[in-house]
Design a protein that fits this description.
Largest sheet: none
Order of helices and strands: HHHH
Number of helices: 4
Radius of gyration: 16 Å
Structural class: mainly alpha
Mean pLDDT: 91
Strand content: under 5%
Length: about 80
């Protein structure tokens, strides 16, 4: 009998903090957020600070994980 046979992933997968925050924004602001995160001209600490000043709290490390594709967002 196999020890690992029938192993299944957990049914609830947590979303990335960036995706959770984007879901609370308008479509336009969510698109802009993603655009800014992926723009290498934005330093992540500077972006985190600028977002915080507008009431969007995302840490530098959260932004970095999202930018590098290391977050919980689906990979395509």
């Amino acid at each position: 009998m196999s020890l690992l046979k029938g192993l299944t992933p957990p049914s609830r997968v947590r979303r990335c903090f960036v995706a959770e925050k984007a879901a609370t924004l308008s479509k336009e602001d969510a698109a802009l957020l993603n655009q800014y995160i992926m723009d290498p001209a934005w330093g992540l600490l500077s972006l985190s600070t600028a977002l915080s000043e507008r009431g969007v709290e995302l840490s530098r490390s959260t932004l970095e994980r999202h930018r590098k594709g290391l977050c919980a967002c689906p990979k395509s």
